[in-house]
Amino acid sequence: MLKVENLSVYYGVIQAIKGVSFEINEGEIIALIGANGAGKTTILHTITGLIDAKSGSIIFDGHELTKTPAHKIVSLGMAHVPERRRIFQELSVLANLKLGAYTRKDKSEIEETLKMVYEHFPILKERKNQIAGTLSGGEQQMLAMGRALMSHPKIILMDEPSMGLSPLYVNEIFDIIKNINKSGTTVLLVEQNAKKALSIANRAYVLETGKIALEGNSQELLNNDSIKKAYLGE
Amino acid sequence: MELVLPTIINGLSLGGTYAMIALGYTMVYGIAKMLNFAHGDIIMVGGYIMYVCMAMGNPLIAVVAAVIGCVLLGMTVEKVAYKPLRGASPLAVLITAIGVSYLLQSLAQIIFGSANKMVMIYDFGTIKLFDVTVQVSSLITLAICVVVMVILTLFIKFTKLGHAMIAVSEDKGAAQLMGVNVNGIITLTFAIGSSLAALAGFFYLLKSPSISSTLGAMPGIKAFTAAVIGGIGSIPGAMLGGIFLGLVESISYKITAIAPYTDAIEFAILIAILLVRPNGFLGKKRREKV
Ligand SMILES: Nc1ncnc2c1ncn2[C@@H]1O[C@H](COP(=O)(O)OP(=O)(O)OP(=O)(O)O)[C@@H](O)[C@H]1O
Ligand SMILES: [Mg+2]
Description:
The complex is a heterodimer.
Chain A: E1 2-11, E2 14-24, E3 29-34, H1 40-47, E4 55-60, E5 63-64, H2 70-73, E6 78-81, H3 93-100, H4 107-120, H5 122-126, H6 137-149, E7 155-159, H7 167-182, E8 186-191, H8 194-200, E9 203-208, E10 211-217, H9 218-223, H10 225-231
Parallel strand pairs in A: 3-8, 3-9, 6-7, 7-8
Antiparallel strand pairs in A: 1-2, 1-4, 4-5, 9-10
Chain B: H1 4-32, H2 39-54, H3 59-82, H4 90-112, E1 117-118, E2 126-129, E3 132-135, H5 136-158, H6 160-170, H7 172-177, H8 182-207, E4 210-211, H9 217-230, H10 235-254, H11 262-276
Antiparallel strand pairs in B: 1-4, 2-3
Helix pairs in contact in B: 1-5, 1-8, 1-9, 1-10, 2-3, 2-4, 2-8, 2-9, 3-8, 5-6, 6-8, 9-10, 9-11, 10-11
C-alpha cells in the first residue's frame, strides 16, 4: 500500500536520509524505531510532502507522493499525526477536528466520522468547545490523533504519540492505536518507546543515522540482542 | 456637545478607516508573515480608479470598480513580487515590498501627473444630531466599517475558510497536512486586505476629495502604527488600534495648543505603548515553533 524506495533527503548539504527503502501492507501496524536524530521525523515529513526528497520514490496506492503537493496528500487517504502534535492552539477542539476533515465534502459522512472519533476519545467530546491550546499534553495528543482520523484515512502516520505522556496515558494511547488499526486503518508508528511500539506492531524497521539497520517481525526484534541493548535498555 | 460629538464621530470614522487599512497589514502579517509595505499604495490606486470612473459619473460603479481593481492588483502583486520570495529572508521581502510601493507611486505619477486631482464622489451633506451639525459621510463611513468588521469577525470565527486562515497563521505545515492550500489562503488574504484598502480610499476621498500619487503613504503609516498598537497579527487588535488612533488624532486636532504636533503625538503614543506592552494591546507572545 505504501512503498518507499531508495529515499534520500538532504538538509542543505547534510544528508539526513541515505537511501531508505521499506514497505507497508494494508492492515499492518509498522513500527519505525531509532535513536534521536536517526531521521524518523524526516522520513514522515518527506512522505507527506512537508520536505522534498532528493531522490527515490514514495508510492502510495499508485500515486507518486514525491511529485504530489503536500496539501493534496490527505485526500489520497493518508493522515499524519505530526511530532509535538501541532494542533491549532487558538481554535476550539471541535474546529480542530473539523479541519481534519477539510477536504471532505459530505456533511453526514463527516458527522459519522466525528462520532467514531468521539468513541475513540470520549474526552474530546466533553471538551469540544474548549480552546485547544488549553488542553493538557495528553489531551492534545488525543486531539492530534482525532484530527488525523477525521480525514477518514486508509493509512495514518504517527510521530511519537507517547512523547511526554505519563505511563497510564501511554498505555491508553497504545490501546487506541490498536483499536484504530482493528477498525481497518493501516498504521506507520514512529516511536522512541521501542518496547511498546514492538509490542503492538506486526513488523518493524530500525533506523540508524539515516539508514535502515535492521528489519523484521516485532517478536524477532524484541528477542534480538543488539536491539535489547540499544533500544530496550536491557 | 457642539465640540464633543463631532470630534468623537470624526474620530470614530477616521479610526474605522485606519482599522480597514490596519486589517490588511495585520492579516497579511499573520498569515504570510511579511510586512506588506505597499499596502498603503493600494489605497492610492483605488483612489485613481474612482477618479477615472467618476468621469462616467456613477459613484456606486466607481466604488465597486475600485474594490475589484484593488483586489486584482493585490493578488497580482502577491503572485508576481512576493510569492517567488517565499522562504527568503524577511529583509529581502521587506525591500521588495518597498520597491513595489515606489513602483505603484511612480506609475501613478507617469499616468496621472504629479498635480493633485479633484475627485468629488458624492456629497452626502450634513444632518443635525442632538442639535449638532454632523457630516453624513462620517456616519456612513462609521456604519460601513462596523458592518465590515462584524462580517470579517464572523467569517474568521465561524467559517471553514476562516478556520483555515487561522490554521495557516499558526502552522503552515500542519495546515497543509489537513489539506489546506496555503498559497490559496495567502492569495485570499491579499484579496481581502486589498478590498478593505479600496474601501478606505473611498472614505478618504469622501472626507477630502483630492488625490495624488502619495495619497496612501500617510494613511498607510498611520494604519500600520494602529496595527502595531493593537498587536500585529491580531484582527481585533487592528480594529481596536485603528479606532484608538483615530480618536487620538481627532481629539488632538481639536486642541489648538497641540494640534500641529498631532502626527508626532500619535507616533509617540506608539512608542510609549510598545515600551509598556511590546506586543501591543492584544498581541500574543510568539510561541516558539519547532
Ligand atoms: N530543519 C532541519 N535543518 C537541518 N537539519 C535538520 C533539520 N531537521 C532535522 N535535521 C537533522 O536531521 C537529522 C534527523 O532528524 P529527525 O528529526 O528526522 O530525527 P528523528 O529520528 O525524528 O529524531 P527524534 O527521535 O529526536 O525526533 C538530525 O541529525 C537533525 O539534526
Ligand atoms: Mg522525530
